[in-house]
Amino acid sequence: MSVLVNKHSRVIVQGFTGKEGTFHASQMIEYGTQVVGGVTPGKGGTKHLDRPVFNTVEQAVRETGADVSIIFVPPAFAADSIMEAAEAGIKVIVAITEGIPVKDMVVAKNYIKSRDCVLIGPNCPGVITAEEAKVGIMPGFVFKKGTIGIVSKSGTLTYEAADQIVKAGLGITTAIGIGGDPIIGTPTREAVKMLMADPETEGIVMIGEIGGNYEALAAEWIKENGTKPVVGFIAGETAPKGRTMGHAGAIVGGKDDTAQAKKAIMRECGIHVVDSPAEIGKRMAEVLKGL
């Protein structure tokens, strides 16, 4: 089992022939992901990376049976690409694009509510099911198969957590980089729910950061419904109030947005909080052994 993507996922790349799309599609193919084609308007009927190129997502779905799409489209057009994928029947939409205007994402998120799909991102590293499918920009070699799921707002900390988990003698089921923008498709709580429901996942790593209330809402859900141990980390402990720290959503607006406040809430809800990402793997191993 896994969540969102696996070895059977049929993936298309929106923005396929661009620089980013080309590079990361090549990496995904090398990892073993079933990339079945891509979309670049105006280039339909050609081939790229030995895969067919289509003018629209609808054509790509009809011709290839794709059920997953990854988006490498410039910010001004990315929200339209999300809606196009949802309209065409794509089940998992992964939006890598950073810098999509908030007003565009309000429209896109509202649009996909009535569609049978899951949006990951935008401004995210994507999703990887270890040794099965990589739909994103993460370094695949870091992720070894195992029983720990990862949910993270931060791309680099996703990779760091995976590395620590593997070094502790464990491995990864699926890692979900949810994205750091104010409006994203799948908040922390929803991603945690997916991993809680996955029979192969025995423990979950939850990585958050300053700003917003995603971690608090997830922690409260875990307290009421959690059936698996969760190790948590919050980035941005030393960030000054009101400062944007890399991610558009990482702005401390009030006392509950700080790293200290979030960690306190998580601890109260039974999450095993660590103060350094270097402790994630060690703590998870201890928790699974009942230490």
From TrEMBL:
EC number: 6.2.1.5
Active site: H247
Binding site for substrate: Y159
Keywords in alphabetical order: Ligase, Nucleotide-binding, Tricarboxylic acid cycle
One GO CC term on file: succinate-CoA ligase complex (ADP-forming)
Cross-referenced Pfam families: CoA_binding, Ligase_CoA
Pathway membership: Carbohydrate metabolism; tricarboxylic acid cycle; succinate from succinyl-CoA (ligase route): step 1/1
GO biological process: tricarboxylic acid cycle
GO molecular-function term, one example from the UniProt record: succinate-CoA ligase (ADP-forming) activity
Record-linked InterPro entries: Cit_synth/succinyl-CoA_lig_AS, Citrt_syn/SCS-alpha_CS, CoA-bd, CoA_lig_alpha, NAD(P)-bd_dom_sf, SUCC_ACL_C, Succinyl-CoA_synth-like
Reaction it catalyzes: GTP + succinate + CoA = succinyl-CoA + GDP + phosphate; succinate + ATP + CoA = succinyl-CoA + ADP + phosphate
Record: residues binding CoA: T17, G18, K19, E20, K43, I96, T97, E98
The keyword Ligase appears for this protein: yes
Signal peptide: none
Record flagged with keyword Nucleotide-binding: yes
Positions of the CoA-binding domain: 4-100
Function per UniProt: Succinyl-CoA synthetase functions in the citric acid cycle (TCA), coupling the hydrolysis of succinyl-CoA to the synthesis of either ATP or GTP and thus represents the only step of substrate-level phosphorylation in the TCA. The alpha subunit of the enzyme binds the substrates coenzyme A and phosphate, while succinate binding and nucleotide specificity is provided by the beta subunit.
Assembly behavior: Heterotetramer of two alpha and two beta subunits.
Family the UniProt entry places it in: Belongs to the succinate/malate CoA ligase alpha subunit family.
Protein name, UniProt field: Succinate--CoA ligase [ADP-forming] subunit alpha
